[in-house]
Amino acid sequence: MHKKILVVDDDFISRAKLPAILANIGDCHTHESGEEALAVFQHALEIGAPFDLIALDIEMPGMSGHAVLQNLRNIEDALCVPEHQRTKVIMVSVHDDPSNIISSLKTGADAYLIKPFDYGDMLDKLSEIGMAIDTGLLDTARLNEEGFLELLNRFIELGHRRLQEMEHNRSDDDYQAIEKACEELQITAASISAHIVNLSLIQLQKAAQQHPESLGLYIQKTQRELKRLERFTQTRN
To answer: Which percentage of the chain shows pLDDT scores above 70?
Structure first.
């Protein structure tokens, strides 16, 4: 039976990756803000079509994932949803510290998944919360091809945009902004195994920290690696 799934994450790469991973499990609805997600969640409950699963990021603009989770459980309490019928919630975050994990579980999360993660990690979490599926029924070939290429394309688009922003940051001597953008791209590159691009990003980040005069060269190198990745995706379409 197909599940009804809600993905809540302000990062559009994650909003592409999670539905690609969960496509064989159920129908995914994505939202980038906690406020939107709460409205959709409550409406679904009120019309008798609740979500089976929510994948919820923690660090988002506006309402944090912790606050969203607390409100989700408050809504279920107000509508007298029985414990066994409550929506399963997996917190999905780059934060791997005990305080975030413990806080999430105490607030009502059913599981905690650390980014970057892969398909197997998500299947493990689904099994952990009692939503195990028969992997023999999954169209993994389609997932690995179409889903992966979609993630690559979105990463390439994000990468080009961030590198353009870095050029402006370099002109303004805003090296901290460049470091932060590199960290963001490195997390995504690692999650999709874009190792060569990730290596370029690490070198670019080090240049921002230690050798600002060489930043232009490392930005160009990273752009070349993104273009190589782009040519690869074009040959697969």
So the answer is: 88
> Of 138, 155, 175, which residue constitutes the final position of a domain?
138
Long-range contacts of 136-145 (CB under 8 A, 24+ apart): 137/24, 138/24, 139/24, 140/24, 143/20, 143/21, 143/23, 143/24, 143/119, 145/236
Consecutive H or E run containing 233 = helix 215-236
Banded model confidence at residue 147, pLDDT cuts 50, 70, 90: low
pLDDT in tens, 82-112: 999 999 999 999 899 999 999 999 999 999 9
CA atoms within 13 A of residue 68's CA, in its CB half-sphere: 31
DSSP 8-state code for residue 122: H
Q: In angstroms, rounded to a whole number, what is the distance separating the alpha carbons of residues 169 and 228?
A: 24
Domain of 214, CATH number, reads 1.20.120
Domain hosting residue 95, numbered range: 3-138
Residues 157 and 123 in one domain: no
Q: Are residues 14 and 117 in the same domain?
A: yes
Tell which residue, 123, 129, 59, has the closest CA to residue 92. 59
pLDDT tens-place string over residues 12-60 = 777 877 887 787 778 889 998 999 999 999 999 999 999 999 999 999 9
What pTM was estimated for this model as a whole?
A: 0.64
Q: How far is CA 22 from the centre of its chain?
A: 12
Last residue of a domain, one of 114, 138, 162: 138
Strand pairing partners for 51? Answer: none
Which residue, 153, 152, 211, is CA-closest to 179? Answer: 211
Give the whole-angstrom CA distance, residue 6 versus residue 38.
10
